[in-house]
Amino acid sequence: xxxVSMGHDYYxxxxxxxxxxxxxxxxxxxxxxxxxPSRLVGKMTGFGRLPRxxxxxxxxxxxxSAGSSLPEKVQRALAASHALLVICxxxxxxxxxxxxxxxxxxxxxxxxxxxxxxxxxxxxTAFPPAIATGEAFAxxxxxxxxLRPEGDGRRLGLLKLLAGxxxxxxxxxxxxxxxxxxxxxxxxxxxxxxxxAILSTLTIMAVQAxxxxxxxxxxxxxLIEFMLTDLRERLEGVGRLDILSAVNSRALDHYRRQxxxxxxxxxxxxxxxxxxxxGEDDEQRGDFVRALAQFEEAARTTGRLLEQDRDxxxxxxxxxxxxxxxxxxxxxxxxxxxxxxxxxxxxxxxNQLVEQEPAKPDWLMEAGYAASNxxxxxxxxxxxxxxxxxxxRASLIRFEKALAMxxxxxxxxxxxxxxxxxxxxxxxAQQRYADALAERQRQxxxxxxxxxKYPRNVQYRRGWLSNDMGTALVELDSGATIEAEKRLxxxxxxxxxxxxxxxxxxxxKKQQIxxxxxxxxxxxxNAPSLPPPARRECSRLLADCTSATxxxxxxxxxxxxxxxxxxxxxxxxxQLADIAVKxxxxxxxxxxxxxxxxxxxxSGGKK
Length: 607
Hints:
The protein is mostly helical. It has a five-stranded parallel sheet with strand order 4-1-5-6-7, sandwiched between helices. The protein has a two-stranded antiparallel ribbon with strand order 2-3. Helix 10 crosses helix 12. The protein is globular, with a radius of gyration of 29 Å. The N terminus and C terminus are likely disordered.
């Protein structure tokens, strides 16, 4: 297969939404750099002789950045492409531009292949309308590859796309890939073990003399840089996390033996970068104890850098990130006092950035996040609703200023809507129910506009559900229980529909269960005598409490036990009584366990 004989300039045209740019770049690079097996090169396929590699592949956002007439350039590129590769996601499905490119390609080339790469969502939510409706695909049906982790994964999905592009059996590429991966694993493993051995040798030699120590330290740090960049990427690519952990430990041991006062700035910067990367790896694996140790070290390093130049915005930002990560891990490990202090330092640094560059939207957003994080901790863990309200108000002001600088940024609008929701929670905790309902309405107005603009966006639809549930909780607390029950029924219906769209999404299922629990609470409040229909409906809603999803969420599990005890007219467990005495307030679902425990239906244990 060659361009001359096939009459095209590009092997494929990649069509994608702007939000999928990162994976589009990855796919573009992988397709162009893939080398087909030597034994297959030159073999005649349904589309011509197989080349060594597929160069060039056309990606419109990159290739046409300097074009004077974008539609004309796109038209020419589509006309000169052998195949169309569509990156499918909910955002791509909502993109009129992606849909137009599909239609124009099929109109130009009814005989040429269209390949689909599913990267997010499901076929029902991610395929553009021109794909989903099956417009003009005869005689060729589009070939789909699922790049999601729960699907084919990126590696197998890439091979499927390559096989589809050149019309060869997938097995030929899978066999070659397995052989190459085995060689890579062997090579990378040997290199990694040699690197660890060399680093150990260099570290021992570094203590023999000051001059020799300086020279050896430079060599060791160069090796560390390689180990935690190029080597790190290769190890992750072949799944050798065991060696990656050994490399991380060796690098950390090297720096722990150093005197920060004697390290040059370049070494300090490298140390901070390494520690933050290692901490994020541990946090993603759920190893909070180890992650906390890494972030503590990172904060020590970035703090030292900041001491050397307290007015450098980049150093202020770097140390702010250290404080944030330290605070987050401390919070997740229930070290609330340490988390609050870290969040306060994070807020102070973020505000300092705004003072230095007040017209920079990124700094305003950073200060808004800092204020909101601290407000959440004050509300959920300290029970200080007035202080939390002030932080949420400060966050809202920052976000609104940032939006004024970039009014088309819908992500900022989402953050503004979130701020109104948190302010409503603070008002609810202060029993300022009218104010809370007003804030929930402001949040709903923003979310509905976003959903109209992005009807397939699951995050926005989940936010709308949370808004309705928050509004219902205010109505329950204020005595408007009939209205709350009506609202929760509609919210539960929409939550069930959304969860059914993506059954593998655990968060959607949790939101459905939580909404059902609050509906059960409203039913029990409105029908205290528990007539048979009310009892049956509550039992049906509480049936989800036995699922693995419910058992995996501590707050939902505790709420399930409380409501089950209320339904059965008995007292809950001693553990839940202890939670109520402590006045615990759930951080995720907004359940006031103290108030729930004091409800007459369970406090007396009536039969």
